[in-house]
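user: can you give me the structure for this one chain? C-alpha cells are fine.
assistant: on it. calling the predictor now.
[tool input]
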Amino acid sequence: MTEFTKWQRPRGLLCQSACMVALLGAVSMPASAADMWTSGVTITKGGAPVSMTAKQFAKKTARGEFATSATAVFDISISLEANPQGDDDYPADPGAADDDQNAFEAKLEEFADAVYQSTNGAHKIGKITIFRDGDLSGLADVTWEESCASNNGPWAYPSTFGKSGGYIHMCTTWSGAPSLMDTPRGGGFTLAHEWGHYAYGVYDEYVASQCSLPDAKNCGPQPHGSDTAASPSIMNNQWNAAQPGGDQNWLEFSTSNIAPYNGSGSNAHKRVFGESIWDTLARDPATDPKLSYLPERTQYTTLTAPVAPNFIVNDSETTARSELDIVWAGDQVVELMLDTSGSMMGSPLANAKTASQLLIDQLPEGEAAIGVGRFSSSPSQVYAITDIPDPDTGVRAAAKAAVAGLTDSGLTDIEAAAIYALNQTQGFQGGVRPSVVYLLSDGHSTTSAGYSVADVITDYNAAKVPLITFGFGTGADEATLTNLATSTGGKYFYSPTTLAEIQQAFLAANAAYSSNVFVSSTSTSAPASDTTIRPIVLDSTLANAMINVTYDGPQSDVTLSMLDPSNKDIGANFQCEGTSEVSCSTNVDVTALGSGVYSLRMANSSTGEKDISILVGADVSGFETYNIAVDFDNTNYPSSLTLTATANKGAGISGLNVAAVITKPDTSTMIVGLSDDGTGEDERASDGIYTATVPYSADGSYTAVVTASNSAGSAQLSYEGIAISVQEDGTGVQPGAASLPENFTRTASAAALVSGYNTDDHANDPAVPAACTVVSDDNTDTAGRIDSAGDVDCFSFVPSATSSDLVVRATGLSAGMQPELVVYNAAGTSELARVTLATSDNSKSGAITTIAAGDLDAAGHVVTVEHEDATADSGNYAVSVGSKLISDEPAAPTGGGGGGGGTDDGGGAFGPWMLFFAAFLSLIGLRQRRSA
C-alpha cells in the first residue's frame, strides 16, 4: 500500500497532475557532479599508499580515520565544453599541433602549484582526467565553459568534493577577467580559489556588495560591502598572484596573525566560522557552527595550521607537480558481466538478458566499446571488447547476440567474476581508456577461486574503474554487492526479477555512468479493447530519446505509436522482444522533430487490462542539460534518514515540483515531498537542493525514486549557495535568477540502508541520571529522535570546567521537530533552564540556552529533549554542549547565498491536498483514459 508521510506539511509540492510518478520496485543510486569514479584521494597509512574514491574519502575523513597521513594526493575530473586538438599525451609537446591542449595543461600545472602552496605542501594534485565536447559534464568535478558572461564567472558549490550535487564551474575566457582568465596563472590560480570552496568548505574573504541587507551580520557566506578583506589570501584575490610579477603570498590561506585580518572587522568566511581559514581547516568539523545553511565540512587531517607569519612560498615546480598526470580521456569501455549460475534459470536470466540488450542499445556510436562476460563457478568472456563504430556496422547486434546465447548452470563466484571483468578492461588497448564494469548477480558466492572482496576493491581503485553492481531478486548478496560498488566509485542497484524493474535499474545505471539522462519512469493501466495515451515530455536539451514500453505478452496484444507535439504520428518503429514479458523500444530524434510534449499511444486489443511500464532515456544535445542528482546515504538509528535531490542546469534550479516514492523493507510504499524552502531539514531556500527526512521504523533497505518536474513552468536558475570569484579588478559579481519556463522531467533513484533500529533511542526519566545518554561538552552532536507521542529523551554531561559559560543546544531539526529542552541539576530533579524555539538564543539554529559559569555544577547536569507538541510522534534533532559558537549568537542569517540571486520561492507550494491526492492517484492507477 502507499501512504503519505503525515508530517510532510503543505509547504513544498509533492506532485501535481503532470508530475511523472516513478515506477515502483527497482532502485539505483545515480552518479552526479562530485561523484565521478575518476575522482579520488591517495593518502599514506602505515607507510603505504591507500587509494579511495572521493566519496569514500569524504566519509572516512569525517570520522578522522586517516589522521596519521602526512600528505594527500587528489585525482579529479574535468569536462570541457571545447574539444582541443593535440597528441593526447602529457607532458609531451610535438609542436604547434599540440598548442590547444598545452594551453589547458599549463593552467592545470599552475593549479597544482597553487594547491600545493596554499596547503603548505600537505596536498598535491595527482591525475586529472579530461573529457571533451561536454562529455560527462553532469558528473565531473569541474565543468569548463568556453566563454562566460560577466555575471557568471568561475564559481563552486562549497564543501562538495566527494558529495553528490556539487562541482566547480570554470571558464576559458571571462569578461570579468579579460587580461588574466585565459592565462596559465589566471586560469590555474582561479581554479585553486574555487578548489578552496569545493574541497575545503571555506568562504570568500573579499569585499563586495553581493548581499544587499543593511546589516552584514545577516549575510552569512555572502560578501557584503562593509566587510573587511583578509590579505594576503587566495580566498580574497587570487588575481594578485596571477598578474605579471604577482606576489605569490596571495596563494595562501588567511591566518589569525596577518593584519588586517586579526581584529579588523569581518568578511564572509569569518562571519560563518568566526575565525581565519587556517583556524577552520585545522579544527574538527564536529565543532563547526550549527548553522542551518552550512554544509557538512570534510576534515583533512593532513592540514596543520602554520605558525604565522610562516608562509611557505615554494616555487619548485618539480615538487608541487611530482604527482601531476593529465589524461585526455578516450571513449568509454563498458564490460557487462552477467551471473549465469543455476539459480538464474528461467525468467530471471531471460529478463536479465533483455535488460542487458537494452543497455547495449543505449551505448553511443563512435563513443564507446562493449564487451560481454558471464560467470558461474568461473568467469569467461563471450564477446570480446570491441569499439562501436559510427555508423555501427553490427557491433551492438553481435554483442546482443552473445547475450542472447547465455544459458544457466553451475555455482557462483562473484569476486572472481569482478576481477576477470576488470582484467578485460585493462587488457583492452592498454587499459588507458575510461572504463566501467556492470556486474549482475542473484545470489551469494558459493565457490571461490581465492579472491576476496578486499582484493576486488584494491584492484578497482588502483585502476580507477567503477564496479556497478546489480542485486537481482531477494536472494542477492546485498551487503557484498553494496560494498563492492560503494568502495570502488560504483553504485549498487537493487531490483526484483521482473523485466520492467531490471530494465529501469539498467537504464538508471547507464545515466549514472555516461552522458545520457534518465528522463522519466512511469506506469499506467491500459483497459481492455481501448486506447490509452500518455504524455512524454522531451525538452530542448535532448538529442535522441529512447522510449521503452514493457507489458505482459503476447506482443500482439498492444499496438504502440508516437505522436509529436502537434498530434501527428511520427511513424515510430517499435522493436519488441519477449513473449510472456514484452519489451518494446523506439527512438525519437528530438533534434529533427523538435521538443515538446509527445504522446505515447497504446492500443490494447486483448480482453484484459494491461499494466504498462514506460521508461524514457536520452542523450543530450549540448554542454548543459537539466540534471538531477540524488543522495540517500545509509544511516544508523536514531540519526535521520535524509533524502536530497540537487537539480541544476549549470547553476541550481529552484521552483521545481519534486517528489519521491519510497519503498520500505516490507515493500510497502509512501510518498514523500522534497522541499527547497530553507526550513526544517532543507539547508537553504531556493538553492536547487530539495530535501526531505524519510521516516523509518525498521532496519533494512529503503529505496527512493525521485522525479523532478517543471510542469508548472515556475523553475528558475538560482545562484543561492554558490561561491563566485571576484573579477580581476576586485569587483564582486552579482548574478541574478533567470526564468526557466520550459517543461521538463528528470528521474533518479537511490537506496539507503538503516541499521540499529529500536523502539526508543534514549532513556526517558531525568530523575535517573545513570540511565541517561552521556554527552561531552566539546560541541559534538549526539543524534536523537522522537519515537512516539510524549517521548522524552534524557542526556547527561559533566563540565570539563566550571569557570566559563556553557551552551546547551538541540539543533539539526527535521521531520517537523519543535524541541523543548530542559537543563537540570546533577540529580535531574531541579530545573536550571527550559527553552523552546520561541525562547531560544537563536531560534534559526535551534533550541539554544546558555548556562552561566556560576550555575554549572562540577557533579554534572541532566538534559531532556521532547517535542513541544505532546501528540507529535516524530522529530529528529541533535544535542550538543560546549563553549559558545557563532551560530549561538542572536543575529543569524536568514538565507542568502554565496553568489546572490535566486528568489524566496521554496520549490513551489501546492494547492489543496485533495487535489494533489486525486492527481497522484490518477497517475498510479485511477487514471482518466482517453481514446484516439
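assistant: here you go. The longest strand covers residues 542-552. The radius of gyration is 28 Å.
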